[in-house]
Structure formats: structure tokens, C-alpha cells
């Protein structure tokens, strides 16, 4: 494996985690949103990760070398879970029985996901720093 492959793989993971963090941020920002342009309350969004695809020739070459692959975000899925029904007759979006359809977002799950995304991002920064140190040490050979 080329030393620069580590940079590429780690940077693809950092990009994917950044998109994940942006999605979590959007979920947290809309945790109380009861009206959307699509109608109804905001629905939770989640990112889908997949190993990055490579053309057949590169894939064959990588499999012969035993090379690793990066990651990419293939989709941001909208949750199909029903909204939480909260009794609040004074809310402007309350129905005849006084229930309001609230977003199906769990604050604790979002905070745990945010921590996980942050730790994964930091781990990939550490990978890049380590690869950089290795490259610099290799330049010192013979001096």
C-alpha cells in the first residue's frame, strides 16, 4: 500500500463524518419543528455509508495488492417512523383532541451519534498525522 493511500482513505472518512455531523446538526435544529414544506413535522435524517466504489481495473489492482478502500456517503435517508404525538392543546398545530405531531427525533440518540461522529473524525485526523510523521521520518533516511 502506498503511504498516500492512508491520506486518501482517512480523508474520505473525514468527509463522510462531516456529512454525518451536518445531518445530526440538522436533526437537532429541527427537533421542535412541526411544519415543513412537505407537510407535517420534520422527519429524522440519517446518513448511509458505503465503501467507495472503484472502477473494475482499479478494483482488480487493489485486490491483488490487498489495498483498503475509503468510505463515502451514498444517501441521506428520511426516517419513516411515525411522528411522536404530544398532548399540547395550546399549540397552534394541535388537532381536535389537542395532540401535536412532533418530529421523531430522540435527543439522546442524536447526542450519542454526534459524539461517535466526532470521535471517528478525530481518529482519522490521528491517522493522517501518523502517516505524515512516517513520511517525514522516511525523508530523514540517509541524512
UniProtKB/TrEMBL annotation:
Residues in Flagellar basal body rod protein N-terminal domain copies: 9-34
Tree of life domain: Bacteria
Pfam families linked to this entry: Flg_bb_rod (PF00460), Flg_bbr_C (PF06429)
Quaternary structure note: The basal body constitutes a major portion of the flagellar organelle and consists of four rings (L,P,S, and M) mounted on a central rod. The rod consists of about 26 subunits of FlgG in the distal portion, and FlgB, FlgC and FlgF are thought to build up the proximal portion of the rod with about 6 subunits each.
Protein name stated in the entry: Flagellar basal-body rod protein FlgC
Family: Belongs to the flagella basal body rod proteins family.
InterPro entries registered for this protein in UniProt: Flag_bb_rod_N, Flagellar_basal_body_rod_CS, Flg_bb/hook_C_dom, FlgC
Residues covered by the Flagellar basal-body/hook protein C-terminal domain: 97-140
Keywords: Bacterial flagellum, Cell projection, Cilium, Flagellum
PROSITE patterns xref list: FLAGELLA_BB_ROD (PS00588)
Localization in the cell: Bacterial flagellum basal body
Primary localization class, coarse: other
Amino acid at each position: 500500500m502506498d503511504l498516500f493511500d492512508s491520506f486518501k482513505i482517512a480523508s474520505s472518512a473525514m468527509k463522510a463524518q462531516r456529512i454525518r455531523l451536518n445531518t445530526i446538526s440538522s436533526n437537532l435544529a429541527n427537533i421542535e419543528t412541526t411544519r415543513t414544506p412537505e407537510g407535517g413535522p420534520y422527519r429524522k435524517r440519517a446518513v448511509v455509508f458505503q465503501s467507495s466504489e472503484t472502477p473494475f481495473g482499479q478494483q482488480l489492482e487493489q485486490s491483488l495488492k490487498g489495498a483498503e478502500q475509503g468510505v463515502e456517503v451514498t444517501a441521506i435517508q428520511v426516517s419513516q417512523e411515525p411522528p411522536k404525538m404530544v398532548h399540547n392543546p395550546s399549540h397552534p398545530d394541535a388537532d381536535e383532541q389537542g395532540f401535536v405531531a412532533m418530529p421523531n427525533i430522540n435527543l439522546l440518540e442524536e447526542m450519542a451519534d454526534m459524539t461517535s461522529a466526532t470521535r471517528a473524525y478525530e481518529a482519522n485526523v490521528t491517522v493522517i498525522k501518523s502517516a505524515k510523521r512516517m513520511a517525514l521520518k522516511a525523508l530523514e533516511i540517509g541524512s
